[in-house]
Backbone:
């Protein structure tokens, strides 16, 4: 695989019509200027997933996913940027010419490619050994059959067997033309070098005398292996896994994700279990939406991987409570990522694999339905049992519970869980809310330190505490609640400023007087002395200023595929909102509403003034606060001087604003 040249990328993006690409996955209905569907990324019954063919973008007002056609393919298929481009190129019959490489790029590219090739060679080798050799059939195939795996399943998961030979695989691979360094880098061959460097190095296979479970990435390529030994040998670990390599980072990988991703999306649920055999067994039983975090304890990357396909995880655990206690942290992590997590525990001595084979898939699914409890309820119950009547233990338990709940990003869910926990624990809900608020404020303060954001925690912020109500009819408000937690004036003016630059920056406000002077130039020239304080808008403005300094075009499209998800989503939200609203408004009331373009100059002018006024107001407040505690008289005078100056500026700006009349 090689790099795609920029011209071809542009060509693909231009041809890949967003409605057509998305239409391959969901059925879109026209409503107003946009197309709507039930979101393929989160479960919902009424459509809040909107596509704007005119702008080439989509946005879900429920879960916030947004992007252009390439991003959609990346997210829905769970593949990377170059793979998505290739897929679209294929769909539209665009040929991708080979780009010129530097030697270094060539080498890096070739090495990754070689790793994939040799891993695939190894997979075939292990598979052939399983089916075609006596040892493979007698030991490997017999074992899989004893576990109840049929041939279809074995082939679907590309299971294999590595023979009882020290270097059988390595020899075969060398004969096939793969180099020893690549075999070592792929984690397939171990080279032991003697300490004195004189004697010859010893070369042997990592996987020997084991049944083999290939590990695939989301796109279906083999990136690693897990090997299980069958005989009882105290000197050998039960499982041997590939080490970390250029193409395998175990914390980013889930076993079975390639085979499960479509089922996870259609069922809007992922079952998470512990071992390879659980995944294979459940899959054979017709439960396809199942993955395992095999080889590591659950990581944030793994949760993010699942969240590309669903927001719901049910964790399936064996019936021993030691394992469950250890896994509680993993579930806190799932909550933190904003996903819903349930927990199902099996009767003692059973694991998902054994249990599904025992009772069959239908009964198994029913068991999960009836026995999966939400994680918070489960944790509360577990903790209550443990603490008994000991008051200090109980207090600790409550604190732990509240900490877990406070990690849930959604305030509605949070308050419901607090309510439930209060009931279960027999304490007043208010106490839990106060505890939770303490935790949230602490978290917010840490965040603010990270951002170096000057304003203190905003307790009126809807993200804190109690229930947040919003109108079901208006997806726009809902989206705003989720993506824009700060409701102060500076926030709005900074937002409006970015929106005007990105959506209308190319317009010429005064073609007669200044035919080359674009709106973006005008705004940027006027605000050179302004530093934004809302982190997201500051980041976007920083990038805009870089583009501006390099004389590059400034458009929203530049950001539609930004690698920074927060920036991408924000820019797309800004392209969507007001615009769509005013169109609906005019249709509904059958009146002429001047479009934004008709009054851009005024909008930009007032925005600049209000922006400056808001920042000035912030400065005034800060001077005032400092004055209140300052004891040194010279400092006091200095502050007073600043304050009076700011007051004058405010007066000037207000005067200017007063003369502006919006049409
Ligand atoms: Zn959604």
Residues:
């Amino acid at each position: 695989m090689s790099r795609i040249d920029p011209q071809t990328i542009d060509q693909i993006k231009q041809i890949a019509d967003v409605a057509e690409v998305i239409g391959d996955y969901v059925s879109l209905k026209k409503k107003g200027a946009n197309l709507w569907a039930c979101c393929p990324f989160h479960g919902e019954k009424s459509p809040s997933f909107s596509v704007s063919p005119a702008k080439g973008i989509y946005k879900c007002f429920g879960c916030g996913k947004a992007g252009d056609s390439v991003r959609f393919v990346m997210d829905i298929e769970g593949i990377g940027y170059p793979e998505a481009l290739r897929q679209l190129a294929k769909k539209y019959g665009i040929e991708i010419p080979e780009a010129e490489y530097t030697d270094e790029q060539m080498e890096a590219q070739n090495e990754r490619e070689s790793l994939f090739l040799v891993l695939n060679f190894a997979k075939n080798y292990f598979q052939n050994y399983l089916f075609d050799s006596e040892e493979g059939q007698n030991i490997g195939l017999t074992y899989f059959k004893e576990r109840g795996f049929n041939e279809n399943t074995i082939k679907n998961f590309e299971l294999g067997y590595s023979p009882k030979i020290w270097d059988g695989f390595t020899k075969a691979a060398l004969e096939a033309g793969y180099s020893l360094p690549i075999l070592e880098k792929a984690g397939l061959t171990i080279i032991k070098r003697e300490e004195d460097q004189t004697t010859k190095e010893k070369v042997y296979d990592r996987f020997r005398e084991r049944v083999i479970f290939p590990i695939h990435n989301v796109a279906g390529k083999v990136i690693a292996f897990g090997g299980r030994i069958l005989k009882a040998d105290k000197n050998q670990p039960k499982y041997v896994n590939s080490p970390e390599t250029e193409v395998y980072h175990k914390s980013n990988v889930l076993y079975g994700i390639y085979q499960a991703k479509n089922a996870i999306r259609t069922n809007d649920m992922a079952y998470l279990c512990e071992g390879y055999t659980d995944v294979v067994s459940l899959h054979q039983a017709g439960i396809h939406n199942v993955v395992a975090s095999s080889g590591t304890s659950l990581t944030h990357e793994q949760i993010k991987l699942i969240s590309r396909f669903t927001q719901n995880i049910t964790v399936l655990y064996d019936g021993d409570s030691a394992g469950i206690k250890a896994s509680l942290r993993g579930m806190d992590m799932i909550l933190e990522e904003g996903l819903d997590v349930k927990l199902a525990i099996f009767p003692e001595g059973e694991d998902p694999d054994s249990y599904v084979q025992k009772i069959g898939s239908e009964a198994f699914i029913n068991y999960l339905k009836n026995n999966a409890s939400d994680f918070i309820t489960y944790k509360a119950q577990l903790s209550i049992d443990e603490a008994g009547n000991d008051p200090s233990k109980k207090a600790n338990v409550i604190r732990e519970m509240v900490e877990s709940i406070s990690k849930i990003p959604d305030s509605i869910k949070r308050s419901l869980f607090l309510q439930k926990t209060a009931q279960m624990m027999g304490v007043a809900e208010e106490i839990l809310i106060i505890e939770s608020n303490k935790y949230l404020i602490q978290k917010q303060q840490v965040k603010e330190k990270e951002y170096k954001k000057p304003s203190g925690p905003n307790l009126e912020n809807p993200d804190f505490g109690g229930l947040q109500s919003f109108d079901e009819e208006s997806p726009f408000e809902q989206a705003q609640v989720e993506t824009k937690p700060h409701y102060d004036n500076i926030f709005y003016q900074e937002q409006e400023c970015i929106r005007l630059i990105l959506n209308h920056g190319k317009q010429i406000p005064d073609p007669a007087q200044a035919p080359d002077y674009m709106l973006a130039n005008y705004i940027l020239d006027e605000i050179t002395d302004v530093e934004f304080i809302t982190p997201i808008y500051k980041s976007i403005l920083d990038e805009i200023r870089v583009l501006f300094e390099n004389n590059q075009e400034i458009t929203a499209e530049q950001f539609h595929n930004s690698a920074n998800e927060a920036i991408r989503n924000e820019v797309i939200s800004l392209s969507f909102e007001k615009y769509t609203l005013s169109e609906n408004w005019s249709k509904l009331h059958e009146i002429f509403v001047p479009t934004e373009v008709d009054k851009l100059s005024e909008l930009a002018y007032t925005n600049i003034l209000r922006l400056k006024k808001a920042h000035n107001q912030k400065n005034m407040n800060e001077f005032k606060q400092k004055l209140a505690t300052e004891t040194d008289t010279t400092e006091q005078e200095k502050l007073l001087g600043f304050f009076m100056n700011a007051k004058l500026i405010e007066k000037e700006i207000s005067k200017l604003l007063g003369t502006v009349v919006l049409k």
